[in-house]
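STRUCTURE REQUEST FORM
Protein name: Iron ABC transporter permease
Source organism: Cryobacterium frigoriphilum
Requested output: structure tokens
Priority: standard
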Amino acid sequence: MLTSLPKGASSGAPEVTPLAPRPTVAAPGGDPSHPSSATRRPRRRLILGLLVAAVLLLLAVAASFIVGTRDIALGTVLDAVFAPDRSVTDHTVVLDLRVPRTVVGLLAGLALGLAGALMQGVTRNPLADPGLLGVNAGASLFVVAGIAWFGVTSALGYVWFAFIGAAVATTVVYLIGSLGREGATPVKLALAGTALTAALTSLITIVLLTDGEAFDRYRFWAAGSLVARGLDSTLPLVPFIVAGTLLAVAAARMLNALALGDDLARGLGQNLVTARIVCAVAVVLLCGSATAMAGPIVFVGLAVPHLARWFTGPDYRWILAYSALLGPALLIFADVLGRILARPGEIEAGLVVAFLGAPVLIALVRRVKLVGL
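Status: completed
Returned output:
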């Protein structure tokens, strides 16, 4: 925009330099929950992508019901789901083995996908996930303590130790990252999380080396598997995941504000302490539940938010919605692939998802330049 000379001004007045338009950082009215208009995606495209993600999740669930070490016809699988008969062996296999592991995959994938998106948003670090910031390590250490010292063997028993460990790790990382004049910056949080993970992993190893029985139980849980997780010990964890999901939804607008930077977020009226506390509680609930159910599965929380961001742009309201669908789809597809690759045996989903997630993340990095979040 050019600034015109006042009427009647002398022709000898100094020349005025044109001013470049300022970029839009928030929607009219100062609402920090709206990203820049230059980076918005058409709403129709976002809804269509969400429907595609939902279809992928349905296909993953169907494949999980159908594929296994025992060949069962599709019609028999449908009968087992909608008209079960316990006297039929194939129905029992579907109901007692495939349905529970699919439910675990849905819940754990949802929790890990949302937790990864929250952590990347609150730290503005594209490499943040529950594994990097020490949350998984904290949960794992306390679960190991429960196994070795208290004889805990069920997911419902693991969850309380996982919650405490995740909360302790999150608090320690935040306190360490907050030291100094600049407060909790993304880089300091990442460094604190990496250091804490290394320390906690060493403690886990020490405990396991001194207790052979605990090591035998831990090694199957730590691989990240959906097998042998019954519904009786899984369904009681649903309220925790629901609570974490609701907090994640409530945090979406806060994350959009935090993405603008701390100073601008404060200027727009955002309470940074409240935003980080809400996100931290949600991450503890989600990661603790997922870790208790399926073990310390890595890479879902790292890769899924980037895959979602590829379609949605920077708006966390859509990133969280996509992550809630893509997380369980990725985990269940990994579990199904593990059944196919090692028939008649199986490969744990936690191992397969790492091989699936790494190429996806590399492709995203090569296609899209990752910037500060």
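Reviewer notes: The domain at 62-367 is CATH 1.10.3470.10 (ABC transporter involved in vitamin B12 uptake, BtuC). The chain has one domain: 62-367.
Form closed.
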